[in-house]
Every structure is written in structure tokens, then in C-alpha cells.
Amino acid sequence: MQMKINYFWKHYVRYLSFHRLPELKAGNVCISNVDKINQIVKKFISDGPDKLQIVTDFDQTLTMHSYQNKRCDSCHGVLDNSSYLPDDFRVKAAKLRDIYAPIEFDPHIETEKKAPKMEEWWTQVHELLGTLNISKSLINKMVAQSSVRLRIGCDELFKSLDKWNVPVLIISAGLGDILSEILTQQSAVYSNMKIVSNFMKFKEDKMVGFYDEIIHTFNKNKCAIHKSGYFNNQRSNIILLGDSVGDLHLADGAKDSSTILKIGYLNERVDESLEIYKNAFDIVLVKTENVDLMNALMKRMTDNKV
User: What is the pTM of this model?
Assistant: First the structure.
């Protein structure tokens, strides 16, 4: 009898989650702890948008990994693959990518060992970029020419988050100027957004270097935003979005958060990485190029709001 009760309760809880948010039933959605997700979804819907904030990565999280079976550009990829930049730069950038990218995405290498390698990579790329006299108008052209794409539904999501004054913190190891231009061309940079990334310094409209410390994939939790007062906003419900286990600490500065929902996009190497992602994130979206789940959750949270 007890086994029957346990079985019934387990599936009833699953029903409650899926009833509130049917998008959780999609075949590309992996959830390890249904009970936990049910409680989080219930709380988020009950509390509404006034208690919510978003903390997110950018490349391959808010942007597509692939489109029509072709890999999309990242922020760095916009430059690496641009015909506006000299061939010599693209060759050197590709060589660096071939050396360091396998380290970044190897699930069997510890983060502590990856971090110094990423520092090496980013430093060398930034030095290369500093030799190119990049202008702001050139950034506009390179983004327009590139294959970078926001995930399907991002524009709708950003509009909704702005309408309901939900703070959006984007922490990116990419290039802040490229990131901002992508948002401008494909959606908008809204007033509720704060972007923390590697921003270029310009002098007389020519890039001369970068501001502040290097932000790479595995030190996002150590950037200055976590030591500031940004998270002192009485918003205890956090949705964290990322595509790497290095993104799990994006919200480390939020000391008083009561509920964090960690959603991870698993874009590649599914067979070798799925269990790692399932153990790390609350929800794993496998080879998904949209933000349907986020839009559905926002809709449920605001259904009864004026």
C-alpha cells in the first residue's frame, strides 16, 4: 500500500509541475528532481515578477548555438570570422581557438585547471584585437555580416522582462561592445539590463585596449559586480541561465536569495555531458534554440497581473 501511495504522489507532483508549465514536458527538457522544480515553479508563480531577477550568460545561452545545421558566431566569433578584418588576424585567432577551445569544453578537466588556460587565451586574443584599429562603425558592420542570432523568442522575452521591470544581469566572457550591438540590431538594450563583459577602450573612435579585468568563462563569479550592491534589490527569486558549468556561479553575489532556478543549455557533446549537466542544473535544455520555457514561465507569472 505504501509503495502505491509513493508512486501516486510522485506522479501527482510531476503532474502539478507539468500542469503549471506544460513546456516542461518537451522531449528536450531534462529534470532530475521533479519535486524541487514543482516547488520552485509554484513559488515563482505565486510571488510574481516583483520578486524575480534574471542572471544570465550570453553566448550560446541567449544566442543560438546552431542555425540550419551551421554553427552560429559567438561574440568573439563575430570578429574571428569577419571578412572586414585581415586574414592574418583570423588565422592567428583560429590557431588559438584550436588550442584552447578543447580545454574549455572538456567535461573531464577541473575548473581550477581550466581557468589559467582561459586567462592565457583571452589575453592573447585581446592583444591581437588591440592591433587592428577597430572602430565603432566597424563593429556595427561586422555584427550585421555575422551569423550570430538571438534564440527564438528572445525579443518577446526581453520585452516582457522590461515591461514588468525584472532586472536582467548579463555576465559574459565575450566582448561587451559586440554583445551590445547584437542586442541593438536584433532586439534592444533595455533599461532593466546591466551588461558585465569585456568592453573595449576607444580613443578618437579607434579601439586602444580593454577596460578592467579580463572576464573569461571560469571567473565570472569573481568579477566586481558580485562585490557591489547590485543584488541588494529585495528580489529573492533568481533564474540563472547558462550553457557551461562555469556559469553555475553567476549569481554568487546574491547572498540573500531564497530560490534559484538554474537552467542549462546543453548545446553539444550530449552523450558525454548530459549527466554532468543534470547534476549541475535544475533543468537541462538539450539542443534547444529557443527560450519558450522562459516565455511560458513569465506568462504564468504575469497572468493575473494588471
Answer: 0.90
Specify the DSSP class assigned to residue 290: B
Domain count along the chain = 2
Check whether residue 231 and residue 90 sit in a common domain.
no
Write the CATH number for 76.
Answer: 1.10.150.340
Q: pLDDT tens, 3-24?
A: 443 443 344 444 445 556 888 8
The reply to whether 278 and 225 lie within a common domain is yes
pLDDT mean over 30-50:
93
Residue 161 lies in a domain: yes
In this structure, the answer to whether residues 194 and 282 fall within a common structural domain is: yes
Does residue 58 lie in a domain region? yes
The interaxial angle of helices 34-47 and 2-20, nearest 10 deg, is 40
Nearest-angstrom CA–CA distance, 85 and 133 = 10
pLDDT, position 256: 67
Q: Select from 286, 290, 285, 263 the least CA-distant residue to 57.
A: 263
Asked whether residue 13 is assigned to any structural domain, the reply reads: no
State residue 257's pLDDT score.
Answer: 66
**Single residue among 123, 145, 167 that ends a domain in this structure:** 145
* Residue scoring higher pLDDT (151 or 227): 151
User: Is position 73 annotated as part of the catalytic site?
Assistant: no
143 grid coordinates: 555584427
DSSP state of 234: S
Active-site pick, 59, 73, 80, 292: 59
Of the residues 47, 50, 57, 155, only one is catalytic, namely 57
Residue 150 is given by DSSP the state B
Q: CA–CA separation, 113 vs 161, rounded Å?
A: 37
pLDDT tens for residues 86-128? 999 999 999 999 999 999 888 789 989 999 999 999 999 999 9
Question: Known catalytic residue: 177?
Answer: no
Look up the domain containing 80 and give its range: 70-145
pLDDT of 25 reads 85
Residue after which a domain boundary falls, among 113, 145, 177: 145
* Residue (of 278, 282, 248) closest to 56 by Cα position: 248
